[in-house]
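Shipment paperwork, digital attachment
Item: protein structure file
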Amino acid sequence: MTENKLSTGYHLGGVDTVISVDDVNREAAKLGSDVTREQIAALAANDPYVVIEGLNAGYGKMEVLHDFNLQVGRGQSLCLIGPNGAGKSTVLHSIYGFTHIFNGHILIGDGEHKQDITKLGANQTLKQARIAYILQDKSVFPNMTVEENLWMGGYLLKSAAEAKERAERVFAKYDRLAARRRALAREGS
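Attachment content:
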C-alpha cells in the first residue's frame, strides 16, 4: 500500500509504506545478520550512554535473550521491532531489574563513568541509576491528576519540591500534557 496516511497519536507525520509483520521480520533479519559491534558503537557516536553487552536474560530458568548487544547514545531514541515473544520487553525488563540475568552486563552513564546496573533490583535502579520504567498499559492513578501522577515518579527524591520541579521540566517539554495537568488521569484526551 503506497497511499500516504496521516498518522495519529502524539506524533506528526505520514505513513508512506505499510508492510506486514513478516516483511518487517525478514528486513530485520537482513539488517541484523551482518552488523558488527563497531557499527553499533558508531550509531551511538562511539560514546554510548546505555551499553548492553552479551546479555543472556529471562524469567526463572527460561532464557529469552541470548548474547544481546546494544548501545544507545545520550539523547538518542531507539525503536525495538520484532514479533511477540522476540524479547523486546525482556530487554526493557532487564534494564529495570525485572529479569534473571544469566550472563552479560548493563552499563549506564557517560564516558568512563558508567555504572553497572546488571544486578540492581527495580527500586535500586530507580534510586541509584535514576531509570524509571513505565508500563505500556494504563499504569496511572486514575483518581489523581496528571500532575499528581508525575509527582509520584519522584517519591524517592530528597523532597517533594524536587519532585515538583522535575514535573515542571516534563510539562515544559510536552505542551499537551501541560494543558491537562489539572485533569484527572482517567479522563480521555
